[in-house]
Amino acid sequence: MKMLKEKIGYGLGDMASSMFWKIFSYYLPFFYSNIFGLSLVDAGVLVLVTRIWDAVSDPMMGVAADRTHTRWGKYRPYLLWVAVPFSVAGILLFTTPDWSYGAKLIWAYVTYILMMSVYTGINVPYGAMLGVITDDPRQKTVFSSFRMLFAYAGSFVALAAWEPLCSFFADAAGADLRSSWQYAMCVVAAACLVLFLLCFRLTRERVETRSTVSIGSDFRALMGNRPWWLLIGAALSFNLFNTVRGATVAYFFADVIGFDANIYLFSLSILFYSGLFLSIGEVANMAGVALTVPIAARLGKKTTFIAVNAALAVLSVAFFFVPVTPGGYWAMLGLQVIISVLTGIMSPLVWSMYADVSDYAELRHNTASTGLIFSSSSMAQKFGGAIGGAAVLWL
């Protein structure tokens, strides 16, 4: 029972991170271009530059976390220290000042870089905790599955509630469009603060690691770690896929499907909108996470990873040919469910394999660089997001 409580507590951390990350990935480009008031070109450059900085800062955070020593452990204290700045930065990010275009562009750069820096400050140590909560490889996969299950649950809540929250503040509270988005983020930020504090409270670090080599040696060992290179390339490509697919949804519904599309179920008319499409995907993601452990145990992590990627490619091409008709809407939802189940299988595999790479590095190179290795996974996620988010706006 104690271990189950800790797995739930660990999952709450990524629940908080994913609530922010999915809103950033899916709605921030639309916010900058359609509400904040930036041109598509400027918004694209902004997303690219800030996320590249964010990606570069990840290894620095990983090195710092590896060399942190407190009574709470190496990585867990950052959940406590950075939770409040994380929430405040999210609110500032969705704040639209009534300034000139040039001043607003500067504000956008400052707040986005601040948000991504704070996100790195809490998410890199959180990810590295997987390497020190347990030394059992199977338990790492289970912890990783709990993490992704709660991550997708958080994404579902955030995506399903985002547009209704914006509408509530716009209609019931009488806020303008810019303020309604800011108020909606205040609600999400408050929830994330509570979740991070609970994650800190419910988890423990059990595996004590201490690096006995210099920072330079850690980086040289990382550069010579062949499994790390293979996994970093695969993770970057997978996150590029996720970002491009997710960031186009708001535009796809606004400019292709429209705001008054309906699907019918038992003679009931149901509004077909981006929040519904995305939140159904998050539920399917959770189903995929639940399937990860038994499938990977039967086929192996690598075989499962390759097979799922191949299926994602085929199904994504098929989605392009679905007609924009009432019947086509159901086909889109069907493909969204299948594709999301497969991406749900992928995510725990990636994090679990990073823990394996960390074990390999300690065995082969005698370097306890868990934070550095896990920060590289976050770096791949953000490079993929940077390229994908900018490409969506420019295209």
Describe the structure concisely for a colleague.
With 395 residues, the protein is an all-alpha fold. The chain contains 14 helices and two strands. The longest helix has 40 residues, at 326-365.
Q: Helicity range of the residues?
A: over 70%
* Class inferred from helices and paired strands: mainly alpha
Overall body shape:
globular
Strand order of the largest sheet: 1-2
| Succession of helices and strands | HHHHHHHHHHEEHHHH
Low-pLDDT residue spans: none
**Main β-sheet: number of strands, strand sense, barrel status?**
2 strands, antiparallel
Strand content: under 5%
Number of extended strands? 2
Distance between the termini: 51 Å
Number of helical stretches of at least 4 residues: 14
- Quote the average pLDDT: 85
Instruction: Tell me the Rg in angstroms.
Output: 21 Å
Describe the structure.
The chain has 395 residues and is an all-alpha fold. 82% of the residues lie in helices and 2% in strands. The chain has 14 helices and two strands. The protein has helices spanning 2-36, 40-66, 77-93, 101-128, 130-133, 137-171, 177-202, 215-223, 226-247, 249-257, 274-299, 301-320, 326-365, 370-394, and strands at residues 262-265, 268-271. It has a two-stranded antiparallel sheet. Strand 1 (262-265) and strand 2 (268-271) form a beta hairpin. The model has no long low-confidence stretch (mean pLDDT 85).
